[in-house]
Structure prediction request, 258 residues.
Amino acid sequence: MSILQEILTWSESLPAWQSDAIARLFAKGAIADADLQDLFALLKAEHGIPDPQGRTAKKLSADQIPSAAAKDTSIKVLAIKNLLHVNRIAPNQRLPFAATGLTVIYGDNGSGKSGYSRVLKRACRARDQSESIHPNAFLPSDQISNAEATFEILMDGVTKEVGWVNGKAGDALLSSLTVFDTCCARSYLDDEGDYAYVPYGLDILEGLAGVCKKLKFEIEVEQAHSLPDTTSFLDLAGDTAVGRVITSLSRRRPNMLS
Prediction:
């Protein structure tokens, strides 16, 4: 079982807001301020504090992470073709890849290189999912739909075609392919300026620990602002009937006066 598969299994035992945080970390690589506020609201909702915006947790799911190919299985991409709603890439086109060796794809700016790479990253569940697939900006809005593509795959010497639609769970076969670019790179620098390697997936745990630390700070700030001001009652305190009643008051259990 891969690290990511183990994290998925482990996340199923976590509170919903923590699984949501893991899903965001996997998709974006970092937690933005807006994400932190969403998670804070989800955390409070799980403890009985309603969220005015009604936000719900979106847990990490199996279709978000790559699946490991069976041992000794050979999987290669021979081509990507029939792209729809991906930038202004013309329909019915086929981009081939060499079955062996290195394939170099080049072209002018705007020729579609990034469009193809984004499709690859989405379909193959690459570590970085921050880049959106843009439709043809020159089409009317009622003619725009989810991006689509067809992959020609060579698996153990047998060719097959696999369809993909953005936003829908794709074939697990595609997720066994690895896609890497500069956005997927994860380099860490320590205080002395040395590079430190973090195994693929374990940075999720580091990110979750950071989220918990930030939410702890948010809770402490909110608690500090919510503490009642009792200075107005100091003059009433003492060994008097009123003072004894004030002393017996509790935030957990109301005092019952007869």
Summary: Helices lie at 3-11, 16-28, 33-46, 113-123, 172-175, 202-226, 241-248. Residues 202-226 form the longest helix (25 residues). The chain has a mean pLDDT of 83.
